Amino acid sequence: MQFLVNVIDDGQAEAAGRTESASQAEMDAVDALNQRLGDSVVIAAGVSAPADAVVVDARGGGATTTPGLLGDPAEFVAGFWVMELPDAETALRVANEASVACNRKIELRPLR
Fold first, then answer.
1. Is there a smaller number of Cβ atoms within 10 Å at the N or the C end of the chain?
2. With contact defined as beta carbons under 8 Å apart, do 47 and 8 qualify?
3. What is the C-alpha separation between 53 and 42, in angstroms, rounded?
4. Of the candidates 64, 47, 43, 46, the residue with the CA atom closest to the CA atom of residue 55
């Protein structure tokens, strides 16, 4: 099974006066988690700051672009993993480990 594991910044970067979400200690902890997970990690990446986002809506024949995040930027996806794991129980355990390593909330979703 594959799972999307989103890292949610709910104010840590702003509180620390940073544009990047993670501190060096958090990045080191995430690197250690990635090493331990090995081949279970299909892809992992940090995501740029919310100010870099653009929402595109090309439905109905016309295209509009709006700078910034869709919705409330008080919480945003700061990074993600796609992981190949044997089951939902394992995914929940790994999400807990990721929350500790990132010092962030984690959103866990199975991929279809």
1. C
2. no
3. 24
4. 64
> Which pLDDT tens digit goes with each residue over 41-94?
999 999 888 888 999 999 988 899 999 887 777 888 999 999 999 999 999 999
Question: In 1-112, where do the E strands start and end?
Answer: 2-9, 41-46, 54-57, 64-67, 76-84, 105-110
Q: Which pTM does this prediction carry?
A: 0.86
| Beta-carbon contacts of residue 37 (< 8 Å; ≥ 6 apart) | 83, 94
* Residue keyed to tokens 């672009």: 65
Cα separation of 89 and 38, whole Å? 18
Nearest CA to 101 out of 7, 18, 20 is that of: 7
Find out whether 37 and 46 touch, Cβ atoms under 8 Å.
Answer: no
Stronger pLDDT, 3 or 27, i.e. the higher one: 3
Structure tokens at 57: 């809506």
Q: Which is higher by pLDDT, 31 or 20? A: 31
Closest Cα partner for 96 from 2, 33, 9, 12?
33
